[in-house]
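Most newcomers find our protein records easier to grasp once they have seen one. A record pairs a protein's sequence with a compact description of its fold. An example says more than a description, so a record of this kind follows:
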Amino acid sequence: MLEGKWKFAIIHSLLQHGTLRFKTLERDVAGITPRMLIKELKLLEAHGIVSRQAYATVPPTVEYTLTECGRTLAPIVQAIEEWGLKNQAVISGSLDAQE
């Protein structure tokens, strides 16, 4: 359910900022394409991790928020972030050695 490159980045962004509009979320998740963001958000919504609120405005306004279930991922995302920061030198060294 949380496989892939982008889901944790999207969840992390929503944990940090709360409710975000599509374009703001796109800017915050560096490197993601609009098409991929739409795909990942639909999957997260289908699994009950993200909720989508559309407003009848011109142009349409859409906001995304973590559900209660999605917010329970906060300690997991934080632990992964801490692990990455703690092991950054080891990971970078391994990647350099492969090149």
Observations:
- The first strand starts at residue 20 and ends at 21.
- The chain has a mean pLDDT of 92.
- Helices lie at 7-17, 22-28, 34-46, 68-71, 74-86, 88-98.
- The CA atoms of residues 15 and 74 lie 7 Å apart.
